[in-house]
Write a structure and sequence with these properties.
single chain, alpha+beta, four-stranded antiparallel beta sheet, two-stranded parallel ribbon, 4 helices
Length: about 210
């Protein structure tokens, strides 16, 4: 057999082989395209963790916002109750945490802190502590000490204010022992309210 004929035969053999391989590859691709077995399971395995995280995140946010709203309402309500009095005592103020707990229902709050302060503003618009009370029964601030953070529109000469400071520790929902980084599994929601007395020129506390 001459060399040209041998070369032509080899070329035709390669072409035939290529056609066979192309045909097999095409059939394989076609089978893969039309084979839907297991696709649903793969999609489920990919989407479920994402959807679960979205749901848990929405739940976490909803609960946290609800607790935050109750913290604001509790601080404001306590200040409102105190400013309706002409005088208070430690025993009167000691009932205020129960007011806060009632507002937080159905949530159970552990470790809540509450400070109530009577603030006297003199003729020069200087705000000082007249009396103060803390949830554990101690004095939160020294009488006569300066008070900062009074809203400008409430810092009126020769007036009286009641300030409530409420701190609520909120435990973030954890879905596993190492779900959240250390030290980031809880936050403290702080709320502060200033209210003016309803009657008279001040509110006294005889044993604060």
């Amino acid at each position: 057999m001459s060399a040209p004929e041998d070369h032509r035969r080899q070329k035709m053999t390669r072409l035939g082989l290529n056609r066979v391989l192309d045909s097999r590859f095409a059939r394989l691709v076609q089978r893969l395209v039309h084979d839907t077995d297991g696709i649903g399971a793969i999609e489920f395995a990919i989407l479920v963790p994402v959807l679960l995280l979205l749901y848990l995140g929405a739940l976490q946010t909803t609960v946290a916002l609800s607790v935050a709203q109750r913290a604001s309402r509790a601080a404001g309500t306590i200040a409102d109750i105190v400013t309706q009095q002409t005088s208070v005592t430690k025993s009167t103020l000691a009932t205020m945490p129960s007011v806060a707990n009632a507002i937080f229902v159905p949530y159970t709050i552990t470790g809540m802190t509450l400070k109530i302060t009577g603030i006297q503003i003199d003729a020069n618009s200087k705000a000082t502590v007249l009396w103060s009370w803390e949830q554990d029964g101690t004095t939160a601030y020294t009488a006569g000490s300066s008070v900062t953070g009074v809203p400008t529109d409430m810092n009126k000469a020769s007036s009286f204010l009641v300030r409530t400071e409420l701190g609520v520790p909120y435990q973030l929902i954890s879905f596993g022992p190492n779900f959240l980084p250390t030290g980031m599994n809880s936050i403290t929601m702080q709320r502060q309210y200033f209210y003016r007395q309803r009657t008279g020129t001040s509110i006294t506390c005889s044993d604060c």
